[in-house]
Amino acid sequence: MNSFQAYLIMGFDHITDLNGYDHILFIIALCAIYQITEWKRILVLVTAFTIGHSITLAVATLQLFTYRTDVVEFLIPVTILLTAIFNLFYKVPKSYSLSNPTKPQYSRYFLAMGFGLIHGLGFSNYLRSLLGKEESIWQPLLAFNIGLELGQLIIVAIFVIVASLFERILNTNRRDWNLVLSGAVGGIALILIQKTWIF
């Protein structure tokens, strides 16, 4: 296995590791309002998040600026809580079809990218510990980011499929599903905020 493959697997394992479930929770919160038919919109949303965390992952790994890790650990669950709260105020379209899609919410894409900047700082601590004495960090950085993106897409695919099955089996409407899921994610985020409280 070459270095590129090794860092790609590390990135994939890092995002799918259940011990780091805060990032998984954020991805779930991002996608909670969407249905499986809106997979293109979900893909754009996850990619926006990836762009955001790739920027700060690169900058922080290159040590171009310093930051307090305890502040980042506190801010990550804050982003999860805010996303869950925004979901609660989301107005579910009366109808949606592939031939008549709803208008995309560009503000949500920018939100995902902005919150991705914070999550990237959280990823950077792990990546820096892996780099050691690598002569160049660009290839490991690229491989790690691709691994993260692949992991995120798999998490999203599993979540959207399971959510779709639950909605059909339990015969729940989209609005109720969003309220229950976002409420649960928000509750977990509050517990994480309490654990990482820095004030």
From TrEMBL:
Membrane-crossing residue ranges in chain numbering: 20-36, 43-65, 71-89, 109-127, 142-166, 178-198
UniProtKB keywords: Membrane, Transmembrane, Transmembrane helix
InterPro entries: Put_HupE_UreJ
Domain of life: Bacteria
Keyword match Coiled coil: no
Record carries keyword Membrane: yes
Protein name as catalogued: HupE/UreJ family protein
Protein species of origin: Xanthocytophaga agilis
